[in-house]
Design goal:
Rossmann fold; DHquinase_II_CS; binds 1,3,4-trihydroxy-5-OXO-cyclohexanecarboxylic acid
Length: 144
């Protein structure tokens, strides 16, 4: 089982960026955490991060071609990128959307996700744990 973990814009600033909202742990900590969870469930986890919409779209296409399920946190693109939404809709592999913060408790522009409707599910507000739960959801999907 192969899983792509794709983090979008500004998530390379985890740990430095608004620590009251996103915590003190870094992107490297997050990637180490999810790699470790992957190993525990004997799956291959590949981590990616980009601040560019086009790069994220290319990785979504690649995941589709390599038959990798995806965990994606599109950052602010979540709220307005129809291009990322269409990229997810264009592949047949399952995608779980994750947000570290509880977007519903924040500014109203964060309440809507244009990408969630084409995802298998969405997990918000649980910090890094959300990525682990998304991984479990994708692994369970295997036996469906
Ligand atoms: C985020 C929530 C988004 O609204 C924000 O733009 C981010 C991070 C989260 O993980 O909580 O960059 O996706």
């Amino acid at each position: 089982k192969r899983i792509y973990v794709i983090n979008g814009p500004n998530l390379n600033r985890l740990g430095l960026r608004e620590p009251d909202v996103y915590g003190h742990e870094t992107l490297a900590d997050l990637e180490k955490f999810i790699q470790m969870k992957g190993k525990l469930h004997s799956c291959e986890v590949h981590c990616f991060q980009s601040n560019s919409e086009g790069q994220i779209i290319d990785w979504i296409h690649e995941a589709g071609e390599k038959n990798a399920s995806m965990i994606i946190n599109p950052g602010a693109y979540t709220h307005y990128s129809y291009a990322i939404r269409d990229a997810i809709a264009s592949v047949s592999v399952p995608v779980m959307e994750v947000h570290i913060s509880n977007v519903h408790a924040r500014e109203s522009f964060r309440h809507h996700s244009v990408t969630a409707a084409v995802a298998k599910g969405q997990i918000v507000g649980l910090g890094f744990k959300g990525y682990e739960l998304a991984l479990l959801a994708l692994l369970e999907g295997e036996t469906e």
